[in-house]
Amino acid sequence: MAWTDTKTHTEQIHILIVDDEKSIRDSLYEAMKLTGYQCSVAGNGREALTILEKEFVDVAITDINMPLMDGIELTKIIKEKYDTDVIIMTGFVNDFSYEDIIVDFGASDFVHKPVGLKEIIIRLKRVLRERRILKENRQAEEQLRLTMENLQKAMGATIQTLALTVETRDPYTAGHQKRVATLACAIAKEMVLPKDLTDGIRMAGAIHDIGKISVPAEILSKPGKLSDMEMGLIRTHSQAGYDILKDIDFPWPIARIVLEHHERMDGSGYPDGLTGRDTLIESKILAVSDVVEAIASHRPYRPALGIDKALEVISSSSGTLYDTNVVENCLKLFHQKGFNFI
Predict the structure, then answer these.
(1) d(CA 305, CA 286)
(2) CA–CA separation, 309 and 227 (whole Å)
(3) The whole model's pTM is what?
(4) Which of the residues 78, 91, 92, 249 has the least number of beta carbons within 10 Å of its own beta carbon?
(5) Contact 333/311 with Cβ under 8 angstroms?
(6) pLDDT value of residue 2
(7) Contact 180, 286 (CB under 8 A)
(8) Which residues contact 272 (CB under 8 A, 6 or more apart)?
């Protein structure tokens, strides 16, 4: 339903008038009722808080000088506890600046006494309009947040399905992609990289070997040493993964990370022989994580070599094959933070 000043009874805008002068309360009350607003009145700040405790109020219009609790204290309490805008009325214009009333006290507007009814209605409608816009923006932001959450969940399920597809054809590396993704995210967090970048690393890590679906299963599970031709087929999986993923509109460069995860700092990697300056930091992190997990785990052609051997390999090749900063943070995780593949 489109917002209007005059709504149904259940949606009616509620205005609270707070002033110790009965004549002002009465005149403003009548003006609010004639304009179509629900209206309550209070003679001081304490009475106003009693009303606010019981009823929702859109806008409070309050005087400053009142007994028991003045309008300044009332305004501060309202802004701390209630979703209510405040318009301050004052006859003491020389005692308070615009900055005092709007910035320091948190009021939405102020008017000088004696109050003209037409002016107060105009000011009120402006505050209500801004209030409506703010509410609509908040609702839109919340809807966008929920939509993004749903998309993330759907994308996560899709990624998981792709990961399982690879592992079905290559049972010896079952769980490899998940473990690589876990270590890569831990390294990214240790490097204090942005959350969005870390999320992209997690997604890329979970499917970095998706291209292996193009490699014959008998080669993936071959128990002996691979021939040069067979190794050449294995090395096509980075490009194949890129080709599968390149047209999917991920919010991260997933396809490129998958393509680059076997590139090396000195240009000795594959498929394109890129050097460190030409590859993403996400790719460098995934490269280290992939090597560590692969060496530490069992493979068809050899038993697991263990995590100590894996860390020795990346340490000895730090700066040549692997990014120095990535290696340092990976070593820190295992040596100082107690990280392990579970």
Answers:
(1) 20
(2) 24
(3) 0.60
(4) 249
(5) no
(6) 36
(7) yes
(8) 259, 263
